[in-house]
Amino acid sequence: MSIIKRARWKDPSGKVTDYDLGANAANVSQDSTHRFVSDTEKNNWNAKLGSTGDGSNLTSKFSQASSRTNLSSGEKDSVSKGKIMKFFADLKAVAFSGSYNDLANKPSIHSLANNCTTTASGYGLDARQGKVLMDKANQLSSELSSLKTSFQDGIKKIAGKLTSLGVSTSNTASPDTISNNIQTLYNNRYNEGYNAGKAAAKPTCSLVYSQAGSGTKDYTYTAPSAGTCLVTLSGVNAGTRYCQKNGSNQSPARQYDTSGRMLFEYIVPVNAGDRVRAYIQITEDGNWNSGSASMYFVK
Prior knowledge:
The chain is an alpha+beta fold and 299 residues long. Helices cover 30% and strands 28% of the residues. It is rod-shaped.
């Protein structure tokens, strides 16, 4: 190290000469009062914090920021600390205590109901009801599964019966298909019966007795075969009237009054040999003394 300074001089003739002024530091002898660096300066230099030094005892001065803003890279340490101080200053007591009692604008906490029947407002469902509801859900699921199985078994039986009766039906048919196929079966059977009825012999209806006028009408008919006897008795003043089968009175199928004349109709099923009696007695009463009796045999 040297403290030499170089000076340049030009004489009147124009000659330039360089001169060294000073001394080489290596040739300088230092004492307590004549030195290049003082002990205080050395101590200050040695006390400076390096990039990997211990800064645990450093102190700094800063002021709280006026508003909450984010930290910025490259800003002064005092500015950053002022921002942090502002954030801490704005935190409420609950941030440090963690106590619900220090919380402002606390939400309302509803009471809990440990049942599924409460209808009053302001209650929440107790978590214990979750188990109850889950058990019910599992039970319902099991019952639905059983019902589904029963329903499918029923569909199979109905489908099998429809198929055996001539309407082919899948075991997995939908209820709509089942319904339609039942209607098809009904239509088929109806048409079969209708056609069979048309082809069968038509019933015969024979008049076996008919009498009108005053007095008593009394007639007994013996059925030649199984069939039906249709008996009609009418009169204005019917003093006595009845229809019997093998001696037993029969009830009229219907009776009504038409213009003052009472009319009684009997429908009597018979077998071969049954005896059917029609009887009516007309009471004399001026012009109102006429009556009638008739009997038809239907085979």
